[in-house]
Each structure stands twice: as structure tokens, then as C-alpha cells.
Fold each of these.
Amino acid sequence: MKWRRAKLVERFFQVLMIGSAAVVLGSLVLILATVVYKGISALNLDMLTQVPKGGYYMGKEGGILNAIVGSLYLAGGATALSLVFALPIALYLQFYAERSRFAELARLSLDVLWGVPSIVYGAFGFIIMLWLGMRASLLGGIIALAFLELPIMVRGMDEAIAMVPPALKEASYALGATRLETAVKVAVRQTAPGLLTAVLLAFGRGIGDAASVLFTAGYTDRLPDSLLSPAASLPLAVFFQLGTPFPAVQERAYASALVLTAIVLGLSLISRGLARRLNKHVIR
Amino acid sequence: MTEPQIRIQDLNAWYGSAHALKGITAEIPARQITAIFGPSGCGKTTLLRSLNRLLEEVDGTWVTGEVWLDGIDIYGRGVDVTEVRTRVGMLAPKPFPLPMSIYDNVAYGRRIHGMHGRLDKGNGRNLDKMVERYLRAAGLWDEVQDRLHAPASGLSTGQQQRLCLARALAVEPEVLLCDEPTSALDPISAQRIEDQLVALKEEMTIVVVTHSLQQARRLADHVIFLWLGELVEAGPGDRVFQAPSDERTRAYLAGDVG
């Protein structure tokens, strides 16, 4: 009798787990389907290759190339800028600070920063820019987004590097390698797929964020021609187009959302393939 | 006994509050195989890892005493730990190749120590020769010569352990520490590692920690018997195995304990 009850309980929890997985997968499918269904009709080549023309926001000609290019510049720049700081910070935390009080404090700060709403980064960036006398610009947007991305990237890398087996570090130390040599030549290779995931996670957060670029990068119908000129972005394009009273423009908002989703999705697929190639050296 | 390569003087080690090594004093003869044996938890690995200062990589360890290597106390002030580990190589129980190619694994140590030298500038041929030489010394060359640039992770466990041996040899250590070097291997792979160690003692001092009495008997010229962190007995292998002077050694060898 007892084993039958255990089996029933097991079955119950199995169904529960499968159900949860289905809910998550179902929401993803639903979101994608909505964006595709509502946006596909407005999506055409002009959308992708032209900047908005006069009267675009009233349903006339043009496209959202300004926002596509702006978003790629903003998120690409911010991700590159974060990477420059994130990898050294993560390696320092894992190889030098380890579990010291300082490291714990640094991790706590990063977790708090992770939780800071992006509008706060935007407002913070805006104040700094006012103080410096800067106008809304690509550079301002990149810096604000980099602040947003940095904690995500550092913590992702920190967790990835923490997975390096102690015996692997020791193998390197035992050959007379310093911590720095072990960190750069062994740990980075061993954790390359994990590091890539952290970079991608940060990029995805950056490209999808509207609030932090609203004040810092501004919005413009033109393509950015220097770091100091304002830049449009896809999330704001969605926001502005959805805010118009014209159904034709609202459809374009969904098309813009579709483009944004496609960029993030495409990038994660590419990085999956890349991670698999990087995987060949990973020691288990 | 020939001139000792390593002289251990009143060495103590703690893991937190656990006293793992208690006042060890011993000598390790040059160009011989010294086996450290004893039951589990007696401090064999701790003693071995104190000889290249790898012990201090674990949080909460504490070491006192002296370990003299060719007239230098490796725990002395101003000693560069990376130099100690360059002179004292190590082979771990489970092979851990570095996450790179077979070639780069062997070249790793030479590269970080700038050992490729002037001959090597530009073409790397000298390094190629060195990689071949140490892969041969580890008995792995024939199996990997046509896939040197393949990932080391693709080798079998036995091959990986010989790669780790080649990698350790490539930095030209004076002493090689082996921590249960065959415990993760099948008997044939284990045999090959043992053969390589016997061949290598012409060139370097070898210290082997082993769980297996049979392995100690096969390999050792000199033995150190530990019991609960204390050194009970040390001396030439023949003498200790045939006529142990301590009752605990006798009991352990006879299989009465441990």
C-alpha cells in the first residue's frame, strides 16, 4: 500500500513540473505569436531600410532604420564598454578577493545594482550629463546602458568562473603559474561558454531597455552620425508608435517589436552555436 | 643513502583546528622514488602538497616548520612560490588537462616561464621539439603525434594522465610529486605510468603518495610511513618492508590494521 502512495505523490509532482514548464513555454509562444500576428502585416522592406519620412507618425512612408541602427549602436557600445570592466572585475573577485569581506560586499553591491530600476539609471545619467553640459547623445545612452549591463555581466561571469574545478586551478598553480596567468589562460578558456552567455544576457537587457535611454540618448528620426549626436532605439520606437491614435502606426509598433525580438533571438541562436564551438576545450 | 634532495624539518600542518601533520622530520633522497604510505587520513597527501606549497591554496590551512630544497627553505621569507612550484612538479590523482590543445598543454609551463628561449623566437620549432620530447618521456607521443592540436579533453583518462605527466616534465622540475597517480586509471594505464616513473628516476627525485601497499613495494626505493599525522618510520624500502622497526608499521604491513 505504501509504495502505491509514494508513486501517486511522484506522479502528482511530475504533472506539476510538466505543467509549469508548459506555462513558461506557452507564454513564450504566445508572446511571439502576438508580435508576429500583429506586426507582420506592417513589416516590409521599407520598414527595415528607411528612416521615418515626413508624416511617418501619422501613418505615411518611411521605416525604423534609425531605431534599428540606434539600438545596435547603443546596446553594442554598452556591451563592449561593460565587457572591458566586467571581465577584470569577475576575475579579480574569483582569483584574488575570493570569499573575503570585500568580495562579499562587492557582490552585494552588484546584486543591488542589478535590482535598480532602469529609469533610475536613466535619471542618474541625465543628471550627470546636465552637470557635464552634454546633450542627449549616443555616448550618453551607451554609458547609461553600460551601468545597467555591468552588474548583470559581472555576476554572470562571476558565477561562471566560480564553476572552474579547484583541481584545474591547482594543475596550473602546480606548474608555477601565477594567479593572473591561471585566470587569463586557463579560467577564461574553461568558462568561455559561460562568459559568452553573460555577455549576451547583458546585451539582451541593454537592447530591450527603454527607460535608461529615454533621457540619455534621446530620440531622432535621423541615423546617428557621431557619438555626440542623439540616437533612436527600438524600445522607444515601439513606445512612441504605440502611443499614437492611428491603427496603422500601432501596427508598426508591433513590427518594431518583432524586429527587436528577432535581433535578440537571432543573437542567442548564434551564440549558442558559438558556445558549442568554444565547448570543445572545456574540461569536465 | 645518497645526498637528500629535500629535508623536512619539524613540519606541522593544520586544516582549521585539525592538526593534520604533527612534527614531521624526514629526508627525501635524490634520484630515487620515495613512497609515502599509510592508511586513509594519515596526512600523506597533506605532506606531499606541503612540498610544493600547494597546501596554502586551500582556505584555512596553516603550516609551520621548514622544508629545505637544495639548501633553500621553501617556507622561508622572500621565497617565490611560483619558483618553488617550477622546481617541484606535481601529478594529481585525477588527470586535469588544461582547457586547450594537447600541444598547448605541454607548452603551457614553458610559455609562462619564458622557457622557449632565443632559438624559439619567430618559428616555434624549438618549442615543437620540446613538446615532442616530453610527450615521448611520458610515453604518449606515438598516440597523439598526428593530433597535437586536438583538444586535450578528447583523450582517454589514461592518456590524459600521461599528458599531465608530460606537462609537468616540460618545465624541467628537479622533484616530481605524484599524488596517487594511478588511482583513477585502469590497470594497463596504471602500469604505463609506473613504468614512466621508474624510467624518470634517473633524472629526478620522485615522491609518490600511494594507497596501495603493492604499488609502494613495486616502486619505492625509500619509504615514509605515516600514521594519523605522525611519521612512524622512514627508511629504505627493502628494510622497512622486510623488517619494520615499529609495531604500527608491522601491523599495517601485515594487514592487521588500516
Amino acid sequence: MPANTPRGYTYPLYSDPANFPAQLQDFAQDVDTDVATLVARQTAALNRPSARVSATANQNVPANTPTILTWATEEYDNAAIANLGVNNDRLTLTQTGIWLVTAEVNFTANGNATVNGRRALFAPNLSPDKAHHSLRGSQTQDVEMSLVMLYQNTVIGDFIRVQVLQESGAALNVSARSFSVTKVAD
Amino acid sequence: MPATTPNRFYPYPLPGDPTDIPGDMQALAEAIDEDVCTLQTNLVGRPVARFRGTTPFTSESTARANVNGPATPYEDRIPWNVEDFNTANVIMTSPDVGQRLIFPDDPGFYFALVTLYVPTFTIAGATVGFMGLQIRRGDFTNPTSLVPATRLAGCSHNVPVDANDRNVRVMSLSVGCFMNGTTDAFSVEFRADTTPNTSGYVIGERTITILRMTES
């Protein structure tokens, strides 16, 4: 009855019948399987699930109304994270772990003398409570805003959206914008 | 005629092969040894690089307010001169145009973080009403061209930059994006708007940190 090393490699005992070719094949295949698993893990570590979506067409943002941004172009996706044909407002985290999330938004100016603030935040699932950023608005200049966070995802299928708010007193547009996620740790 | 395992191709004898236990053991041991050595060589940390620009850089005239439309690449593109660390095969490139492009020589999805220190504006009588920082995708093979300098990310300030600015002069910007390893390069661009218009705006030390997240 052969024995196994802690990693599962099979070797014959003295009491086993001598069958060198079969025993060596068994050992070689065990090592083969083990090393192949290690190589696969190494490859996965260097190829983290990542995605980037973007849009350039104007999206209307009414004053004082939290608005979820939408996305039009899937620039990169190696893990079925974006599915803009089904939901064009989110990136879905297809693995648990720690994710690096970044987004940036360009608010166009609407000319209103009342500028007040522009705000953007990440909204995991339906709770907009992560990684806020806000800036004073501008009457004549576009306002560009960049957000970044590390997010611990515990549920496969949870998603993240980007929500914006502006307080200029009138509607304005968000134009160029992008949104990306990449997994950084298990 | 020995056979090999399905994944790593380790050799082993078949029952009909001549008996050569030492030779077969050696062949298998050497194949595993070589394979594990390769595996160990490839066990590296995440590829990462950071570059800094330490020399003062004066952006072009503030008469053009918008960072989105420079007339030449040199107006807004920030130069770099120091490589802090680099395990990601990223090249600070195009010295003939002031090393204004950061070129990842390997394709993949990258995360980049840019920081920029903007000293207080010192031209008497002028105030700063806007500062914009963008990361764009430049063309490594054509560093003097603005096409295609696709905008990847941007941030801005719309508050006065003066002695009372509570240190908003440190700007940061991040992006996740694919770079193709053949032409795509990071171009970091800065723009300021002042009242009245002035001949330029001197910025201070800046960094770009790059992490490679995928191999293709």
C-alpha cells in the first residue's frame, strides 16, 4: 500500500510489490499536478481580475438630486465584471477579496452664478457610504474629480456604482468619465 | 520509449522500456529540478515602478483655461527625471522632448497614481482660479504628437491658491487602464488658469506610481 508525502506525492513502501515504471509514473504525475497548480496560482496572481468602463456622452445631473452615473464603453474586462448590456451603471465584483476601485468624473459648467459643491462617491450595492469626494464648483470651468478606495468584498456578485450630486441650482452635465476596479488581494 | 506527464512533461518509463532505475530517476529528478527553478525565478512580487519630477516646470501661458486642448504636447505634459524603483519594465522616455512620457514596455492592465505639488502662485496681482491635472494616453512611438492623447482621468481645483488655501496645492489623481506595451504611454498634464492671464505657472515635485495588475 503506497504512502504519500504531505504534499500528496505517492511513493512505495518496502512491503509493496516492485513495479518501478508504474510507481515512478504515479510519483511523476503527483508532482506534475502539484506544480501545475502552483503555476496556475502564480499566473492568477499576476493577472488579477480587472475592468475599466468609460463614457463621453453627456449625462444630465439635476440639481440636488443624487444621480447614478452610467457607462457606455467596456475598455477592459478579464473577469466578467462589466456587463453594460444588462446593467450599464455598475461593475460587479466576481470574486471576494480586496479591490482597488477608482473613478473620475468631469462636471461641465452650466454658467450659474451659484456654484456650491460637486460631489462624487462610490456606492457599493445600494448603500452610498464609501469614499466620498467633494469640490467647490465653478461657474465657468469644468470640475474634474478623482476617487479611489480599497474595498473588501465578501459576497460574490456585489456591485459598485458611482453616484454624483451637484448643488449649482440648475441641471448640468457630466461628460467624460471612467470607472475601474482591480483585485489586489484575496 | 518514455512517456511524459500531461502538464509539466516530466518523463517516466513505460512497462515495456528497458529497466534503468538510476537513469529514469535522474531524468525525472532533473526535469522537476529545472521546472521548479523556472517556477522560483518567476515568483516575483507585483511589478511596480515610481518616477519623480524634481526640477521646476513651467506650464504654458494661462490664457488657455482648459486642460483639454493644448496646441502642442509640450504645453501641458509634465517632465520626469528620477526613477525611484522599477520592477515593471516601465521606461521614462523620449529624452529629446524632455522625458514627458512614461511607457510600460509590457502590455497589461495598470493602476497609476499621480501626485503633484503646486507652489503658491507668486506673481503679484494675479490669482489662481483653476488648476487641472489629467492623465492621458500618449503615443510612445510618436512623442511629439497629441494624437491619440486620449484622456484617461482628471481632477481639478477651483479654489484660490494663496497663503490661505489650506494646502489644496497637493493634487492627486488615480486611474486604472489597459496599456498595450507597444505605443501606449502615460502622459501627465497640468493646466492652471489665472486672473489676469500670466506667462506660466511653475509646479514643483511630482510622482507617478505604476502597478501592473495583469500580463495582457
